[in-house]
Amino acid sequence: MKKIKTWWMSFILLCGLTTVSCDNEDTPTFPEQPETTDPTGGYDMTGFARGADVSWLTEMEASGRKFYDSTGVERECMELLRELGMNAIRLRVWVNPTDGWCNKQDVLVKAWRASKLGYRLMIDFHYSDEWADPDDQHKPVAWQDYSFDELQQAVAEHTTDVLSALKAQDIDVEWVQVGNETRYGMLWDDGFTDYDYSDAANFAQLINAGYDAVKEVYSEAQVIIHIDKGNQPGYYTGMFDALKAANARWDIIGMSLYPGEDPDNKNGLTEWQPLDKDGNTWLQQNDDCIANMKTLIEKYGTKVMMCEIGIPWSYKEAEAFYTDFITKAKAVEGCLGVFAWEPQCYGGWEGYHKGMFDDDGRPMSSLNAFKR
After folding, report:
1. Residues 6+ away with beta carbon under 8 Å from 53
2. Domain segments of the chain: what residues?
3. What tens digit of pLDDT does each residue of 136-193 get?
4. C-alpha angle 51/321/137, rounded to 5°?
5. How far apart are CA 80 and CA 281, in angstroms?
6. Alpha carbon distances (Å) from 51 to 68, 152, 309, 332, 357
7. Is 49-371 in CATH node 3.40.930.10?
8. For residues 265 and 252, what is the distance between their CA atoms, to the nearest angstrom?
C-alpha cells in the first residue's frame, strides 16, 4: 500500500497543470486538505536549519520522476525528506523563465506544499530569467533597457510581488536571498562590482532595494547576501568590505561549497577526488570554510549560513563529507544552518550528479548527516 496520501496525488497532478504553462498571469489553485493542528507531523522543525533546495521538484514530478523510501515504497518527496531529517526548504525564483519553471506561480505551489508540512522557508531571488551565478548575472529580458533607477524599482516590485503572493496564502518566509552567488554583483553590467571590488555602489543600491522590499512584506525575515566558494575567504572579505563601505544592508552572509571539480574530470588521477585548485582535500576545504565562517561572524557582526552544499552522490566518502561539515557548522555560534542543493536529484537529472538519491530514486546514506 502506497504511503502517498490521496490529496498529495491530486496535488502532484495539479502541480503539472499549474506549472507547465506558468505564464505570469496564471493563478495557482490549491486542493482542499484535511485540517491539522500540527503541520509538522510531530517532527522538530526548529533550531539549526537542516535544509534542502528542491526547486527542480515540480519539474521532476511532471517528467514522471518518482521517489521511494529505503524499502521501495513510493513517497511524496518533501514528506520523505522531512522524515530523513530536513526541517527547511529553499526555493529559487526566476523573473520570466521561458519554460515557466521557478517563476512566481511554480514557487508558490512548492512553497505551499512545504508550509503544509511545517517546513521553514527560504526564498532565493536570482533577479534573472535563468541561472544567476558568479559567471552569469543576466538581466531579465523585460528589464534590459531599464535605467538604473528603473532597475532598482524593478527589483523592489518583483520582490514585493512574489513575497506578497506567498503571504496571501499564509505562508511564512524566514529567510530571503537578495541575489544568488553574487560574487561580482548582479544585474550586469549595471550592478557589476569590478573584479577587485573597487566599485560596489550600484550593487549595494540594488541589494538595498531588495532588502527594503523584503522587510516591507515580512518584517521579521532575515535577508541574505550569498556568494560561492565558502572555503576561500578573500572573496568574502573583499566583497563585504566593499558592500559595507557602500552602506549595503544585510542580516546573514550566505555561502556555497562544492569540493573539487566535475566528476567527469579526474585531473589526472585514477579516480575522481574532490581536490580544489591547490590540492586541498574535502576535509581541508571544510575546515577552511568553517574558519571563514568564524572570521565573518567576528569581522562583520553578522550571522552566516551554508545555502548550498554538495558533492557527487557516487563519491565513497559523501556521507563522511556531509557529516563532518554539519557537525562542525553546528558548533559555530552564529551559523544558522546548512542547505543541500537539490538532494532529490537522481539518474543524471539535468546533468547534475550531486544529489543524494540513487538511480532508483531511493535516499542514500549521505542523508544520515541531516539527522544529526
Report:
1. 89, 90, 91, 92, 124, 307, 308, 339, 340, 341, 342
2. 49-371
3. 999 999 999 999 999 999 999 999 999 999 999 999 999 999 999 999 999 999 999 9
4. 55
5. 32
6. 19, 30, 10, 17, 15
7. no
8. 34
